[in-house]
Amino acid sequence: MSLNSFDEWSPLREVIVGSAKNYVSHERELSFELFFHDNIAGDNDAARLEWYYPRLRSRGEGEAAGGTRVPVKRRYVDELNEDLQGLADTLASLGVTVHRPTDVAPETGSVHTPAWSASVVPPLNIRDNTLIVGDEIIETSPMIRSRYFETQLLKPVFQEYFRRGARWSVMPRPLMTDASFDLSYARSSSAGGPMEPIEDPKPSRYDVGHEMLFDAAQCLRFGRDIVANVSTRNHELGVDWLERHLEGRFRIHRVHKLSDSHIDSMVLALRPGTLLCRSEAVLEYLPEPLRKWDVIVPPTPESYNFPQYEDDDLILTSRYIDLNVLSVSPDTVLVNEACPELMRELERHGFTAVPVRHRHRRLFGGGFHCFTLDTVRDGGIEDYLV
Ligand SMILES: N[C@@H](Cc1ccc(O)cc1)C(=O)O
Ligand SMILES: NC(=[NH2+])NCCC[C@H](N)C(=O)O
């Protein structure tokens, strides 16, 4: 079918499911630290209190200034790939056509640019680096060096949609030196202060000042309207680009500092008129018309909903990550089977919750919405925000 995806909930026909094959390590360097350095914007903001990564430690004295590779345990990767296959199988059993990315080679390659190099990670959270807006694929400007060329691994799928008539654009590629990053958000937190120190940026001959760095997962799509989160100058530039690029076709609504970057573990749209939110406080950040929608706030996730990890396992998400569900239609939602409370809450609101196993979401940074890219849904360019 042709590329057609305007919203987060209408009947799903085709989807890409990410892959974690050959995931071996995280490369800890400035862009990684900054991305996962989840700072807390306000101490009395209930929406944010649980946001910290207790085991994300800063580099010790004497360690290399460049990237430090932190191994990811093989067992977790194997279990994750098993769960991803389960997700793909469930989607297929519901009649959805599933595409998969190209796997990275077992000997993890590196990205080299004139300014830096970093090890490559697999195309797992594929929601992040590509925005599908209607009949257009937009590869967004990455925020993590290891993920600089991640969308290359989706090339065969994108080429096929292009052949069938899709538009295909790539946002300007950043030089991504240390000076490209606006560190103000990460450095201005309160509520106990920034959880992890961010290293001082190092100068480079390639510095051009702040650049556009913006992930697709900062957006939610509502037909003609797109909600986009802006927390830094980098995001602002990214949204300026999007706005100019989509002018006359889509309307962008900026929300400010709803989260540090991605918003799909804060708020998701399940059907016209219904949002799934981490807390009621989220509503205040949203554009006026959305504040009138019904809100489902699931019970706060508890530690027993998650596996226990060792001290050397990096935890990359908040406990709210399972809010990151995937809608296959306006009444059916794929939910982590580890969250019976969330399933019950959705059922109480008339949804069918399909349980799917997903054990290590906190180690790999994503739930079902993050791991997928919905390329064909029935919905069109409608005005939902009136
Ligand atoms: N602080 C980010 C960190 C993050 C982003 C993407 C991930 O896949 C995982 C974690 C979250 O709130 O959005
Ligand atoms: N598209 C994504 N990768 N979203 C993940 C967001 C996770 C968010 N940082 C959290 O900790 O809850």
UniProtKB/TrEMBL annotation:
The keyword Transcription regulation is annotated on this UniProt entry: no
InterPro entries recorded: AmidinoTrfase
SUPFAM superfamilies to which the protein is assigned, alphabetical: Pentein
Keywords on record: Transferase
Residue positions of the active site: 215, 262, 370
Signal peptide as annotated in the record: none
The organism's place on the tree of life at top rank: Bacteria
Molecular function per GO: amidinotransferase activity
Protein family (similarity comment): Belongs to the amidinotransferase family.
Full protein name: Glycine amidinotransferase
Organism encoding this protein: Streptomyces seoulensis
Lineage: Bacteria, Bacillati, Actinomycetota, Actinomycetes, Kitasatosporales
